[in-house]
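Private note to self, pasted from the team thread so I don't lose it. Backbone tokens:
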């Protein structure tokens, strides 16, 4: 019977989707999580006092072009269309503080420079602003200067990026900013994907429904212990990669977040997300959670001020810091993991990559399928089914 028993560490989207796949093929699946809740960092729940749905680990908007992922999620709960229209506070070219559209669009450009450009005029203007002396950008800063020029870079990217990553943008790789981060029209939809939505009853309900299967046992408040693996033929690991090896080669670096939570009445900022781009404002953004639920009315409000910081050993890891300097440590873990036969590393922590929810789900489905096939045919296992 052991060969049909699967252990999954982590009850986020990665763990839940893999659990469901195996359960439907009649494997017996045990999912453990060290937290008392499912859904990992996507977890959201209703505030007892106000009834507002709170995104406890930061705001989560589902967005994808993958029709199969969208269709998959429809089976597990109701989704409400949600378009994220982010605003950003910064100073315009004359130094006056204003609220702009984000990502930078024609409205932002016109407002920032005090102009009434057409799309083509704006494009020509920005081309002239760009620093054409930079041929091969070596850093985030050079890449931004080459794409948008000094003024827009200073107003919208410099301070925000420095707060977010805790280093000077000239120390970050150019690859972080691949494309021109602006639009020459009035489209203020933050994402450009076909499907964009939020679960009506929160992410916890969606993940609970994915896990609701007779062949799945969920054990919360249960951190992983090595001896647990003995009873299972295969383990899927969606907890931190370095934790599996007891940090043998040192810790992989992450950024973490602190939230300052403020309760108030009425409407605090009139929008779900407002970024604060300037360096002298210590937080990166304010999220007012009731605006994610535009279909409900609330008299009261709750806002989260978001502060970015280096992840300490007792903090929750949020964003992997994949700098060239940390590649060596990562390589040591990858090599060690590849020697394991009965463990597959998945998800944002198990593969040490930033992953949106749709990619997480897509990779979890593909990985489950591949591993199941290999288990059935007795083929050699692979610790990673994705390029990390
Ligand atoms: C601030 C922020 C905002 C985001 N916003 C969006 C968004 O708007 N849209 C989007 O598509 N994506 C967003 N994401 C990405 C999204 O959070 C991830 O795609 C998703 O959480 C990945 O799921 P996962 O299961 O791989 O990891 P996780 O959700 O982190 O799940 C891993 C689980 O492992 C558990 N675990 C850890 N250690 C142990 C242990 N020792 N034993 C047992 N269990 C353990 C953890 O408790 C956790 O539940 C955002 C991410 C961040 C950081």
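Design output:
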């Amino acid at each position: 019977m052991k060969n049909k028993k699967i252990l999954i560490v982590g009850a986020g989207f990665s763990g839940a989707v893999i659990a469901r796949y195996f359960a439907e093929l009649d494997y017996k699946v045990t999912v453990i999580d060290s937290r008392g809740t499912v859904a990992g960092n996507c977890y959201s729940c209703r505030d007892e006092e106000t009834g507002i749905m709170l995104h406890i680990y930061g705001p989560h908007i589902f967005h994808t072009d993958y029709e199969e992922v969208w269709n998959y999620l429809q089976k597990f709960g109701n989704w409400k269309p949600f378009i994220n229209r982010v605003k950003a506070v910064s100073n315009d070219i004359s130094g006056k503080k204003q609220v702009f559209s984000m990502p930078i669009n024609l409205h932002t450009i016109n407002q920032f420079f005090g102009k009434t450009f057409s799309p083509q005029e704006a494009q020509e203007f920005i081309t002239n602003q760009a620093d054409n002396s930079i041929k091969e950008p070596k850093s985030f800063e050079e890449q931004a200067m080459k794409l948008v020029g000094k003024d827009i870079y200073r107003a919208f990217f410099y301070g925000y990026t420095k707060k977010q990553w805790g280093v000077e943008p000239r120390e970050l790789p150019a690859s972080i900013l691949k494309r021109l981060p602006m639009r020459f029209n009035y489209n203020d939809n933050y994402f450009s994907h076909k499907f964009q939505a939020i679960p009506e009853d929160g992410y916890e309900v969606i993940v609970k429904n994915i896990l609701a299967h007779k062949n799945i046992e969920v054990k919360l408040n249960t951190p992983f212990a090595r001896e647990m693996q003995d009873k299972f033929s295969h383990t899927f690991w969606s907890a931190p990669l370095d934790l599996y090896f007891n940090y043998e080669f040192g810790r992989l670096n992450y950024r973490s977040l602190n939230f300052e939570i403020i309760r108030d009445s009425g409407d605090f900022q009139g929008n779900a997300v407002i970024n604060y781009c300037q360096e002298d404002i210590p937080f990166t953004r304010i999220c007012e959670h009731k605006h994610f639920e535009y279909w409900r009315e609330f008299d009261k409000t709750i806002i989260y001020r978001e502060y970015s910081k280096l992840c300490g050993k007792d903090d929750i890891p949020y964003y992997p810091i994949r700098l060239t300097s940390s590649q060596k440590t990562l390589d040591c873990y990858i090599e060690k993991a590849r020697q394991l036969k009965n463990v597959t590393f998945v998800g944002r922590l198990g593969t040490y990559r930033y992953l949106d929810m749709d990619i997480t789900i897509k990779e979890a489905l593909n990985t489950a399928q591949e591993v199941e096939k290999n288990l059935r045919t007795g083929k050699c296992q692979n610790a990673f089914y994705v390029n990390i």
